[in-house]
Amino acid sequence: MSIKTNLILKDQSGVALVISLIMIVILTLIGIASTYTSTFEIRLSGNKRGTTDAFYAADSGVQVVVANVENFGLPGKYVDNKYDPFTDPNNPNPTKAQVLIQYDTTQEGSPRGSGFSAINFEFRHFVIDSKGQDQLDLNLVKSACEVEQKVVRLVPTLQGGY
Question: What is the model's pLDDT at position 161?
Answer without folding.
Answer: 47
